[in-house]
Design brief:
With 108 residues, the protein is mainly alpha-helical. Helix content is 33%, strand content 4%. Helix 1 packs antiparallel against helix 2. The longest helix has 20 residues.
C-alpha cells in the first residue's frame, strides 16, 4: 500500500457522522426486515426486488459516503503496460472461394 493511495488510506475518508449513523440504521432495519419477514425477500410490482431497496441500496450509499474505499486486504492492481504479446498460434486465413462456373446459356 502506498501512502498516496486514497482508496486504501482510512485517514483520507471523512464522512458526516449523522449521515453515516442514519445509513447504518437503515441497513440494520433492512437486514432485520429481510431476515424476519418473508414478504421482504420477495418482489413488489412497483418497487421491484425488495432486498435491493432494503439492503443493497443503503449499503451502496454507505460505501459511496466513504468514497468507494476498498478494504485494506484488497490488493492494489497495477495497470499493465500496452506491450503486445507475441503470437504463439498462427492466425486462421480465409479460404479462397472456388472460381465461379461459367453461366450456361438460357433457352428463351
Amino acid at each position: 500500500m502506498r501512502r498516496s493511495d486514497p482508496f486504501h488510506d482510512p485517514r483520507a475518508v471523512t464522512a458526516d457522522a449523522r449521515l453515516e449513523a442514519m445509513l447504518r440504521y437503515a441497513i440494520a432495519i433492512g437486514a432485520v426486515l429481510v431476515l424476519l419477514l418473508p414478504a421482504a425477500r420477495g418482489s413488489h410490482v412497483a418497487l421491484g426486488w425488495l432486498p435491493l431497496w432494503l439492503l443493497l441500496m443503503p449499503m451502496t450509499a454507505w460505501w459511496a459516503l466513504h468514497r468507494f474505499a476498498l478494504p485494506a486486504w484488497a490488493p492494489v492492481r497495477r495497470v499493465a503496460t500496452a506491450r503486445p504479446r507475441p503470437r504463439t498460434v498462427v492466425q486462421a486465413r480465409r479460404r479462397q472461394r472456388p472460381a465461379r462456373p461459367l453461366a450456361l446459356p438460357r433457352a428463351a
